[in-house]
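Entry 14: structure prediction run for DUF2892 domain-containing protein. Input pasted below.
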Amino acid sequence: MQVNEGTIDRILRVAAGVGLMVFGYWTGGGFGTGMMIFGLIPLATGLLGWCPLYTVLGISTCPIKK
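Run finished. Output tokens:
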């Protein structure tokens, strides 16, 4: 698993994930639970620095090339 996300990309993903989870918590119910679960995706990819979709599409926003 090679890092393929740059710093700004990672920060935006973590912020979006946390935002979706907070929104889901405030909304409540089934929709809120779904939003909280959906928010885990950008949160996890931002924390790990690796996006599986980027790998499939051959995209990398990481400035360091290995």
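Notes: The chain has one domain: 7-57. Will compare against the previous run tomorrow.
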